[in-house]
Each structure stands twice: as C-alpha cells, then as structure tokens.
Amino acid sequence: MECRLGVGFGKESLLYSFPEGNPMNMSRLVTFASFLNEYGARTEGIRFRLVEPIPGTESDLLSFHTQNYIDQVKKASKTGIGLSDEGDTPAFKGVYEASLVPVGNTLNGLRMVMEGEVDHFFNPVGGLHHASPDEARGFCIFNDSVIAISRALGAYGLRTVAYVDIDAHHGDGVYYEFEPDPRVIVADVHEDGRYLYPGTGGDHEVGTGFAAGTKMNIALPPGSGDAQFFEAFEKVEEFVRRFRPQMIFFQCGADGLAGDPITDLRYTPTVHAYASMRLHRLAHELCGGRILAMGGGGYDPSNVSAAWSAVVRELSGGAATVLH
Q1: Which regions of the chain are under pLDDT 50?
Q2: For 163, which DSSP code?
Q3: 191 in Cβ contact with 219 (< 8 Å)
Q4: Residue in 237, 232, 238, 235 with CA at minimum distance from that of residue 219
Q5: Cβ atoms within 10 A of the Cβ of 115, count?
Q6: How far apart are CA 244 and CA 184, in angstroms?
Q7: Could you give phi then psi for residue 5, rounded to 5 degrees?
Q8: For the chain, what are the domain ranges?
Q9: How far apart are CA 222 and CA 208, in angstroms?
Q10: Are 170 and 152 in contact (CB under 8 A)?
Q11: Homologous superfamily, domain 5-316
Q12: Across the strands, what pairs with 8?
C-alpha cells in the first residue's frame, strides 16, 4: 500500500510553549524533533513530507471562538498576564501569535488531504481538544480540532466524519461542541474522569437529540495498560466502521504512556502503533485514506517521541522515500 504522509512541524511549532514549570513546554518536543530529522535522513523506506507550519487567522478562530475571548487572548499576549483557567493555562508574551500556529497547521493539513496533496497529515502540536468557545482550558488556547472538523463539514461539504481521541484526558471541548451533531462520530478512549481532568466522558455520554448513539466514550480505570486499550479499541473500530465516515480525525495524545507525570494510565508505545495502524487501514477501507492526526498531550519527552514516532511510521506506510 503506497501512502503519502505530511508532517507539519518546524521551528514555529515550538512557539506553543508555556513558561517553565508548566508541563506543556517545548522540552517535550525536542526528542521527537530529533527523531524526525534523523529518521528522514537515514531511512529510504519511509514516505513522508515535512511541511512548514503556517499560522491561522482571526477569521479561522471565529468559526468557533467568540470575539470577546479572542480579544482577551490578544490582550494577554501583549502583557503576558492572565488567560488562566483555574491556574493551569497561563499567558505569556506572544501567546496569541503562538496559538495561531496549531490552528493554521491543522487547517493546512486538512486542505492538503482534501486536495490530494497527501493521503494523511500529522500536526504534532495540535489536537488542543479542551478549549471552549470563550475559555482556555487544560493548556489549550484555541481548539484546532473543532475548527478543522467544522471546516470539513462546511467548506469541504463532507457529510460524516469521525473523531477518534486516545489522549488520556477526555476531549471535552470537541465532544460537547458536537454532542448534538449526528454528522460527527466521536469515539474517545481516556482515563476515567472521576480520577483525572476534566472529569467528563462517562460511558453514558453518547450524544443528544438526533445525534444520540453517534458518540462513544470509553473511560478506563487508572492503571489500565495495553490489554485494556486493545479491548476498548476493538469497540472503537467497530463503532466507526458502522457509520462509514468520509474522513477520520485522530487525536493521538501521548499522555497515556506509563511514566507521564500527570496521568495514571500504563500504556506502552505499542498502543499508538496499533491505533495508527488500525485507523490507517480503516481509512483506506472507508474514505480514500483520509486521516488528519493531531498530537494532543504528553508530558514526558521520551514518551512523546516514542508514541508519535510510532504514528509517523504507521501512517507513512513504510513505502518509497522521504519527500522534501
């Protein structure tokens, strides 16, 4: 199977980095950046293309976020003060400009996939799934996932898309935006919200109204490892296949790996290789290979590199040569 993967990553990706002491900082990306450079240089059996990130625009943000909130972020960006949700998402000077990069990178990946420039796209510094229309939440300023899904349904006219999230935290910002929308199939495997932020994503949350039954939340108990994930993901795959989406959005947060400093799951990188492999096959089966992957969380640098290098290997398909 010949596959082409675009990876949106460059020096601009490092701008989305909170001050020292916050786990969402650029140090978590350094090892993965080295992997991309070294792997591309030494391996002729991989087919991927490095794509320079580009920033989004205020118009992009307004498809989900309120003008008042955007103005608040701009103000905080100038002073470096504020933008706090219970203290874990601090402002820093230039935060507005930095936060445009994940949005623009994800939207550019969507464009490249929809226009056939690549089969799959991975934005490591994306998948900021907690942000709400008027609030920064859980280290997430702007919700690139919601913005991209909305564009896929709107400008690109897709009728049904799937959003699969394996981050240790429930993707509440995405789930609640599309909870009543039957066009968005959500399958989210995460640590039980009774023990971990944001405290949502119970098994009973399956969509509302006409969308009832189009959402699946699987909450795993603390300490769950690969075996529990594989069992859950069989249900995810069956669920997604039932709706035959025209595109798959994949949030592949690395914070479920054993040793992450803020979660209690015990995955190995095999989880990310497995999920990527299964979704890769499913995408070719159902929707012409269309996958847009986004990195999400992960706060141990070695775990982040191991998980996301597995994503790159699996989505690249191991064919042909590196593209520049």
Answers
A1: 1, 45, 319-324
A2: E
A3: yes
A4: 232
A5: 9
A6: 11
A7: -120, 130
A8: 5-316
A9: 28
A10: no
A11: Histone deacetylase domain (3.40.800.20)
A12: 51
